[in-house]
Each structure stands twice: as C-alpha cells, then as structure tokens.
Design a protein that fits this description.
The protein is mainly α and 117 residues long. It has one domain. It starts with a helix and ends with a helix.
Length: 117
C-alpha cells in the first residue's frame, strides 16, 4: 500500500510540475519594437495631422530643400540626432535622424526634463 501511495504521489507531483512549466512557457514577455507588436495605422491622414507635404512646405520656408542622399543632408542646416544620456534613437529604416537647430534644442530640453522628473 505504501509503495502505491508513493508511486501516485510522485506521479501527481510530476504532473503538477509539468503543468506549471507549460503554463509558464506559454507566457511570453513583450518585446517592444518587435514587428509582431507593431499595430498598423488605418489612416495616416486621420492619425497624423502633419503629413509630409506640410513638413516640406515648412522646410522650404526656412531654407531647407528636399535631399536625395544622406551625404547632402550632412552639409545642410540640420543637426544629427544621436543616442545620448537623455534619450535613445532607435534604428530608422525609412527616415534619417536630423532636426533643425531649434528642434534639436527642444529635444535636449525635453530629454533633460524627463530624466529629472
């Protein structure tokens, strides 16, 4: 009787450990900036009120013309935005990380204020 009881007890413990392990393996941690976590935008016009034509109009007004290469951008009135102690610049596949001088200063101020709070 005690051998049967021991056998069943070990079997039940094994099944419980197996179930807990399977449940834990199923719970994945969320990794941000992973393609499976990015949700699409139905309408860019509705979601973002500042589409590219508006950006181009303002850029032309302050003397910045559209560029066809990154080398041309480096020689303009723009400042490159790089990861630093205040913020991180993620990898960009369809844009370049540049801002006008005032935008660069504002980004630095926002980063400093965010870290201080």
């Amino acid at each position: 009787m005690s051998k049967k009881f021991l056998f069943y007890s070990i079997g039940i413990v094994f099944v419980i450990i197996l179930l807990v392990g399977l449940i834990q393996c199923n719970q994945r941690s969320v990794i941000y900036n992973s393609p499976r976590n990015i949700k699409g935008v139905v309408s860019y016009k509705r979601s973002f009120g500042d589409l590219n034509p508006l950006h181009l109009d303002v850029a032309k007004k302050i003397g910045i013309s559209p560029s066809s290469s990154r080398e041309v951008i480096d020689n303009k009135k723009l400042k490159r935005i790089k990861t630093n102690q205040w913020y991180k610049v993620d990898s960009l596949t369809h844009s370049v990380p540049y801002l006008v001088s005032n935008g660069h200063k504002l980004l630095e101020t926002i980063g400093v204020n965010f870290r201080d709070s």
